[in-house]
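BUG-449 | component: ligand-complex export | severity: low

The export step for iron/sulfur cluster jobs runs without errors, but we want the raw record kept on the ticket for reference. Input record follows.
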Amino acid sequence: MSSSFRSSAPRPYQSYVYAYPHKTAYRPFPEGGRPALSERWAGERKDALSLYLHIPFCEVRCGFCNLFTRIGAPDELTTRYLDALDRQGTAVRDALGDDEPVRFAAAAFGGGTPTFLTAGELDRLCDIAEKRMGADLRAVPLSVETSPATATADRLTVLVERGATRLSIGVQSFVDEEARAAVRPQRRADVESALARIRDARTPVLNIDLIYGIAGQTERTWRLSLDAALAWQPEELYLYPLYVRPLTGLGRAGETADRAWDAQRLRLYREGRDHLLSHGYEQVSMRMFRRSDAPPQGPDDYACQTDGMIGLGCGARSYTSTLHYSFDYAVDMREIRGIIDTYTATEDFSRAEVGREVDEDEARRRHLLQSLLRAEGMEVAGYRERFGRHPVEDFPSELDHFGSLGWLDESAGPDRLRLSADGLAYSDALGPELFSPAVRADMAAYELK
Ligand code: SF4
């Protein structure tokens, strides 16, 4: 039996670590003590920044979703939102200054659903990225998230003309009953039409998101969704375990995770992984798979432990090497609406409002976490070059524990730390073990709203 089923093994689905520290460890800076962006960006490297524009609107709120987004956008809200993005972009670009070269190496529009915006509004969004921030969208990788209902030909045309190189669509399941069970009603025929429009748009990279662990999903129906996705030969596929999170639609429905559900998700994960590996895909991380012959997306695409992120919009994070910041965060719909309204009324974007200082200990954790969770693992030399020590000196008990659970690949040799197949499967249990005590305490004390 695989070690993953040993009773001593931690629960596999604890926390998806896509950014460290998590936003629930951010805190509002005190009035009068808000960091000035111009001071915090002074002296930072700015020649390979990432730009992220966040659009917090969706047509429906999926039952599993805890992202910062609201349904619909009444009363010219999208115009007010774009006006605010424009003001924020101007203020942030001013704060970056011109003493050193400012260059964006990658850009992304996420959400929510950026294509909730009309074609004309998307054009304006690109203008904000280019004219306010100075990003050359046609020269760098530009990733845009979309949904089946909003991936319309006019919107896709604008995005492709403006330089989109990657379109990512959340399908979740090609089985209509499963889509309903995950509180995301959609018809397969509409999904297939949207995929056809995306392929007609001819971006280099199509990504399809699928979810496993939905009520009623079986090995057979999971395989059906995988094969339906593979029929489009997507350059990338993300396979997400379903989470039931507090305050989301499914969370309110009272579903609880249990060991049987863990086992179902692990089974479907392995089934999905093996199926994709046997169909010409490589595993990049627990969730991400890339077609082996897919065009490269540039050197920066998954080097997410690097600093230098500019996020615009009320749900976007920004990172300097020592400060992570954003705006207020919520999952509950009413709270989100209030935060969006506050954002659209904001005139002064020159200071960080909510965030966390990142010291060297946190930077080490972040580097290890975000490298180790990639299938290729972490080069010890890169860590040593940045921090002057071997990771085993910094994280002896954690790495020892991972080793004892069979999560480290012994065959990786002394120059690389790499997860075993089981380690990758348990990424969402392993990641949280590397959180610092201070971040853990703040996350635990955070009152979800
Ligand atoms: S999963 Fe995507 S489409 Fe669904 S509510 Fe969340 S952001 Fe919107």
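Assignee comment: Attached the raw record above. The pocket of iron/sulfur cluster is lined by residues 58, 61-62, 65, 67, 69, 111-113, 147, 170 (CB under 6 Å).
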